[in-house]
Amino acid sequence: DGVVDSEKVKSNNVDAEIPESELEAEKKGAEEEPPRESDSNILDVSSDYPRDKHISIQRRLADLEKLADLREDQKKPCPLCPEEKFKACNSHKLHRHLQNLHWKVSVEFEGYRMCICHLPCLPVKPNLVGDQTLPKMGAHYHCIICSATIIRRSDMIGHINRHVNKGETESRFITGRNPKSSYKVVKESATDVQVLPNHSTPQKTDSYFNPKMKLNRQLIFCALAVLAGERKPIECLDAFGATGIMGLQWAKHLRSSVKVTINDCNENSVTMIKENCHLNKMKVKLSVKEEDGDETVGGGEQNTDTIEVTKMDANVIMHLRSFDFIHLDPFGTSVNYLDSAFRNVRNLGIVSLTSTDTSSLYGKAQHMALRHYGCNIVRTEYYKELAARTVIAAVTRAAARCNKGIEVLLAVALEHFVLVVVRVLRGPSPADDSAKKIRYLIHCQWCEERVFQKEGNMVEENPYQQLPCDCHGSMPGRTAVLLGPLWSGALFNTGFLRRMLLEAVQYGLDEAQPLLKNLICEAEGTTLKHFSTHSPVDENKQEECGVYIKTPNTSAESYLVPGKRKSEEVLRSGAKRQRVEHSAEHPPFYYNIHRHSIKGMNMPKLNKFLNYLSEAGYRVSRTHFDPMGVRTSAPLAQFKTILMKYSTPTYVGAQAEGPVHLPGEIQVGEEVPAVAEIKEGEAELAEDGKSGADATVLTPSCPTHCAAD
């Protein structure tokens, strides 16, 4: 007891000074005192029980009673209670005490019981009574895995469940790694990865894996495959590896065309990435320090199926090394890593980033969008495209700070993420051109008409004049709001998307193919009915960033000569001369047909409405941002006019099918030039409405329907 007391005094750093002579006397007394039977029985409780676990963790109630087993004629103290709380008593009374107070409220885990402990293991804040300080010790539990002390039983159960979800089912003091029985193998695109049971919770796991992001991974793979076809080999970086599945898919399918580096700042994630590399029969490239002690990778020629795994902060590795392809997929926003990504990325390289902070980007948390992206946004009918343009504006500013411009190749905003893929153009001139495309957006809150603010620094007296609508003159108060700054350029590159589709077909990526077809139609301003796998301009040449880049049907020497500035300038000048009308940018934003439908009228089918707009002379397509959205070059007034013209009444007995004759106040023939074209083909469109207006369902007993037939 004297030894224990002296150790407690040293460990707790008590200010009271104790003479060394008294401590030495206590040690001698402790050495001369014979050991008690209870002390010897503590080690004989269970042969398979580890020594480092607390005495409150036992398998059986009898094992707990053995801790206080003395001679029958002596009273027995409770091993889990101090003497001032429970005095020594007979065996039958101690049995009831242990069973009712300690055993019944225990927490069970893998055959062990974590009983409640009243010993002074967890000190509580003392109660001050006058000048005296009364120490108080609280009841608590000891965790069998990490030896943590937790007060409440419900908190202890939740604490154990978190250990189980992480795969930590053995004590940390015994084994450093989790047992492999707690892992499960997930397969995606012929790639196997080990994940933990809680792999879908990024805040609580070291191996985050989201099956819903499979489409995102396929799109990024297609973009990398297109870049690998331009120049070989390319160095690519997965800055946030987690399980490493994305980098493994790159290396497994593209092989010698890419040199893959998977990075993560978490040590457990790095260990799991290495195990997943061996699971997929990939060799791990060791660092300089590791190569001295391990000879798994020879010093001769490098294996083509080799992946480099690093443990660094993402900003650090992107500052230290140069890459051709960089993908950023952090938890939440990626604006903290943009400056590092554009610092050393090579010319004509690609940077892709996935943002999952949809609450701020989709207008639910506007203060976070202002804080992270420096952008003012509100919830609109086109909020997903607004989110994509917000992210691209942040990317453009980060690239411009490094004297680099961007060319947007792809922008996708779905339910769970916003994906942006851009090509990097080195030089101050591309940086200036990209920065000029960042503008503010004037948005009408009444009719949701929108227009980008004109270029220039001069302040206008009435900015409402830029809006095509007349809501400011007819409605009271201020009707418009200024959003942005946003990216005002194109969101898609048709040539790049077509080559991505070819790669998706080649590697059998079924989920990405329908989306890529829709994106191509959206970029060209056509419908899926007129979709063709060949480019209408030239199926062998496609222009990106002012440079003709080869497709699989052409040779690399014909259009792109890497490392020669003169040839690039010749190609740039030739591209400017050969630009055709087809390369015009797609219309910005879209209209939701349900948002602008007329009350009491059945609107036409969406595909037929697209044909009506196309016949009126406007570019029109569907959009992946909204399944009921229409991307068109028509102004909102003309959009509503055509929608009203081909809508049918919902009540029986009214005009059954065909175009609706608008009242005088709705006609906008003088304001919209394209109305003349509609009037010229009115007879033909009326017959189309009679034969194909499927929005209204009429019964055979309807007299109007019979008359129309």
From TrEMBL:
Q: Which reaction does it catalyse?
A: guanosine(27) in tRNA(Tyr) + 2 S-adenosyl-L-methionine = N(2)-dimethylguanosine(27) in tRNA(Tyr) + 2 S-adenosyl-L-homocysteine + 2 H(+)
> Which GO molecular-function terms appear in the entry?
tRNA (guanine) methyltransferase activity; tRNA binding; zinc ion binding
User: Where is there biased composition of kind Basic and acidic residues?
Assistant: 1-10, 24-39
Please provide the record's keywords in A-Z order. Answer: Isopeptide bond, Metal-binding, Methyltransferase, Nucleus, Phosphoprotein, RNA-binding, S-adenosyl-L-methionine, Transferase, tRNA processing, tRNA-binding, Ubl conjugation, Zinc, Zinc-finger
Q: Where does this one sit in the cell?
A: Nucleus, Nucleolus
Predominant location of this chain?
nucleus
Its name, as the record gives it, is tRNA (guanine(27)-N(2))-dimethyltransferase
